[in-house]
Design brief:
By secondary structure, this protein is of the alpha+beta class. About 35% of the residues lie in helices and about 25% in strands. The chain has four helices and six strands. The chain has a four-stranded mixed β-sheet, covered by helices on one side. The radius of gyration is 23 Å and the shape is elongated. The N and C termini lie far apart (about 65 Å).
Length: about 160
């Protein structure tokens, strides 16, 4: 009996229900857009524990970052993943010492902690490849990336 009365109410008020549902959907879309104003959508790739696959993670980063967009992105990347089962690329505590873009080549200097392979971080060759992949996927204008750790150029003869 109760189900039949509910069905009758729904049939009588189709337009009102559709209007309210549409309003709620529009409100949710507007809230989503407003919550991301002033941010850039960035994609991060981290290795998955116990697998050779990568986990994609999306973060919204301040588009007016004091240190600059690329530097802010690298800092976020070095913080590591926030997704369960993902591993950091470099050892926890690795810092960006400098980041300079010149003639479509990005020069990135990392602290000496980057050479340590602790806390489940990647081996050095994979870490450098992932760092380059992440940067190139998010900043398409960069053609070459040169990595320095503690002032020493890292040349692992990898395909970017």
């Amino acid at each position: 009996m109760k189900i039949e009365s509910c069905v009758q109410v729904l049939k009588k008020n189709k337009f009102k229900i559709a209007l309210i549902a549409g309003g709620i959907i529009v409100l949710l879309i507007v809230l989503h857009i407003l919550s991301h104003l002033g941010t850039d959508r960035r994609v991060f790739y981290f290795p998955i524990s116990g697998s050779s696959k990568l986990q994609k993670e999306v973060r919204y980063i301040d588009s007016e970052a004091v240190q600059g967009k690329i530097q802010c992105y690298i800092d976020e990347l070095l913080l590591g993943p926030s997704v369960y089962r993902s591993r950091p690329i470099f050892t926890s505590g690795t810092k960006r010492e400098y980041c300079v873009l010149k003639n479509k080549t990005l020069y990135v200097g990392l602290s000496e902690d980057a050479v340590l392979q602790e806390d489940g971080s990647c081996e050095m060759s994979r870490a450098v490849a992932l760092l380059k992949k992440n940067i190139k996927k998010n900043f398409t204008g960069i053609k070459n990336i040169e990595i320095f750790i503690d002032g020493n150029f890292i040349d692992l003869d990898l395909k970017d």
